[in-house]
Design brief:
single chain; 633 residues; alpha/beta; 21 strands
Length: 633
């Protein structure tokens, strides 16, 4: 059953056409990820669905008695409120998290059992609020809201949204400012949440895990894919292939029609007039537009022998020790990821490296050729009263790239800021556009040490992909604070982890390698603990009592009948499946212009790939078992 249905949606913002006669709907239980380039209208669509904005044209129909909870991109609070007061206000509206209820009565404060938390007698709404705030890393419930950082404000607002029951959660960038453990908790919460979810997020692992539908906003149209993010990438490529095949066919027909038109009509019959009209319609039909992408050129400066050297760095605030006796010499082309809980000292370390703040003890050595570019978390250095072009020119009028000398205006074009936008005041840009502009200004200064503090916040996925490719060829040092697991796996080669009490521990590899190291460390501790307990229990008395009793023989590993049968045939089955998939791919190339047949082949290929994945998992299990059996013989 549909919760929200939007038909013929058309809406403009200033001179931009955000939605061009497009349709959208949300069904019960759907977990929808909305993606698209920053500034194209994603947040506006969320507001239209929630009823906070009206379309210029089109209709929006919401199911009767629909209860919606909305998390905006930048929540607002009432100055003077404590954090707890702000999320306990009636309907939580004044936190900026806005409860939009189409019910006659509200179940304020009750978290129903089908929405992950049970309502238990004696566990009142205040206790629930404190539990959610604690999950979001906020424990000082009486702190005034005006003392909160931007990240803390967003997390407090998210706690308020999750506090009450809803049929539909609308979340604008919920993973921004969440550390890894918080993101994992939210991921688990949303997967268990039985209502529908519509969210904007650029966390690709999060999208992959939570969503069952991806909706792409592209050039004013909404395209729906009934899959997670990984599946979307495949289906998007197939959609583009179909569009290109159709365009090739149109161009071929158009050439034939053009020849007919150039010969001249011998008589102006009705049939020939209809032919002319068909030609004109074919000629005027728009072909598929290539996605405009951010183009980044490596513009770093030469880096000398001495880079950045941290020696015995310590920093505390009051009784809280952030780092203690930390030493590291950055190597040329280092790729460092810094992780840890919110408030642990990650941004403080970045500011010590950049010289924004001084350590309590220790020293920071910086080479003469070092030129730092600091992409901070809050866009502190951005004067929003400037025009876009003037802001970039304040960094450099021109920049040297591999292609030669590029002007500020040309670089803005490459960063998806056309000439029509370049004389716009920065304050009128979307949050994501401001982050993209801020990044461009830093790169215009040609740094050779890049400090990126939460670079994935508010940047769209396409820009992130290009940034990641850019960092591959960047001739310099990259130091990034990020909670984005995909970004860390993609970019960094060493992790600095803040583990409390001033400890900063180094791990080799990306985020997945870091997690594997933690799991191994925990497994080693458990093994050590078990061995210690076993030795403690093995007393002389207990040894004496076992005398004369036969030891129970451990069961010998072996294949079951079915496992043995599968092991003998599984490699042939995998080879046959791979052959069928290859054959389907060849058929898809031949049928590129036949949409219905192509869809049938795509469905068949997906089914075979699913079977292949199951067979591969079975093979891994059987292969491991075979190795263990061989080892005991």
């Amino acid at each position: 059953m549909s919760l929200v249905t939007i038909e013929h949606l058309t809406k403009s913002y200033t001179e931009r056409l955000l939605f061009d006669n497009t349709d959208f709907s949300i069904g019960e239980g759907e977990k929808i990820g909305l993606i698209g380039i920053n500034g194209t209208g994603k947040s506006t669509l969320l507001k239209v669905v929630a009823g906070l904005e009206e379309p210029d044209e089109g209709t929006v129909v919401r199911r009767r008695n629909l209860n919606i909870r909305f998390l905006p991109q930048n929540p607002q609070f009432i100055p003077g409120d404590t954090i707890l007061q702000s999320i306990l206000r009636e309907n939580l509206g004044s936190t900026g998290t806005l409860d939009i209820s189409h019910t006659d009565t509200l179940q304020a404060g009750r978290i129903q059992s089908d929405n992950f938390f049970d309502y238990r007698e004696g566990w009142d709404v205040e206790s629930q609020a404190k539990a959610f705030l604690t999950k979001m890393g906020i424990t000082d419930f009486d702190a005034k809201v005006e003392t909160l950082s931007g990240g803390q404000r967003k997390r407090a607002a998210l706690a308020g949204v999750l506090l009450q029951t809803a049929d539909l959660l609308i979340l604008d960038e919920p993973t921004n400012h969440l550390d890894s453990s918080m993101a994992d908790w939210l991921e688990d919460y949303l997967k268990k949440f039985r209502g529908a979810v519509l969210m904007i997020t650029h966390d690709r692992y999060f999208l992959d895990s939570v969503t069952n539908r991806i909706v792409e906003l592209d050039k004013g149209k909404l395209y729906s894919y009934q899959t997670n993010y990984e599946g979307f990438l495949k289906l998007k490529a197939e959609r583009m292939d179909i569009a290109l095949a159709s365009e090739r066919k149109r161009q071929s027909i158009l050439r034939v029609e053009l020849e007919w038109m150039q010969r001249g009509a011998r008589a102006r019959s009705t049939k020939q007039k209809a032919h002319i009209q068909r030609y004109e319609a074919l000629r005027d039909q728009k072909g598929p537009e290539d996605d405009r992408e951010v183009e980044l050129e490596s513009v770093s400066s030469r880096l000398g022998r001495m880079t950045v050297e941290l020696e015995h760095i310590s920093k505390s605030y009051g009784s809280k020790v952030l780092m203690k006796d930390f030493t590291y010499i950055f190597l040329k082309n280092d790729r460092i990821g810094i992780i840890g809980p919110n408030g642990s000292g990650k941004s403080t370390l970045m500011k010590i490296i950049s010289g924004w703040i001084l350590p309590d003890s220790g020293s920071v050595g910086v080479g003469q050729t070092v030129k730092m570019g600091y992409f901070s978390q809050e866009n502190e250095a951005m004067n929003e009263g400037l025009k876009v072009i003037d802001y970039i020119k304040s960094a450099a009028e021109y920049v040297m790239t591999q292609e030669g000398r590029i002007s500020a205006s040309q670089m803005l074009e490459r960063f998806l800021f056309p000439s029509s936008v370049q004389y716009t005041v920065i304050s009128k840009l979307s949050g994501g556009e401001k982050r993209r502009l801020y990044l461009l200004r830093i790169l215009m200064e040609a740094p050779n040490v890049l400090l990126l503090d939460e670079p994935t916040n508010d940047l769209d996925i396409r820009t992130l992909t290009i940034l990641e490719d850019y960092l591959d060829s960047f001739q310099g040092i990259v130091i990034a604070v990020s909670h984005d697991r995909y970004f860390l796996d993609r970019v960094v080669r060493r992790i600095f982890a803040f583990e409390g009490q001033g400890k900063v521990v180094q791990y080799e590899g990306g985020f997945t390698d870091y997690q594997a190291a933690l799991e191994q460390r925990e497994a080693d501790r458990e093994t050590l603990g078990r061995d210690g307990n076993d030795r403690a229990r093995t007393t002389p008395a207990s040894n004496e009592s076992r005398k004369g009793k036969p030891r129970r023989k451990e069961g010998k590993l072996k294949f079951s009948y079915q496992e043995q049968k599968d092991w003998e045939t599984i490699e042939d089955e995998i080879a046959a499946l791979e052959g069928r998939i290859e054959e389907l791919e060849k058929q898809m190339e031949k049928e590129a212009s036949n949409y219905s047949k192509l869809n049938e082949l795509i469905a068949g290929k997906e089914e075979q790939e699913k079977i292949l994945e199951e067979k591969m998992e079975r093979w891994i299990y059987l292969n491991d078992l075979a190795d263990r059996i061989a080892a005991q013989e």
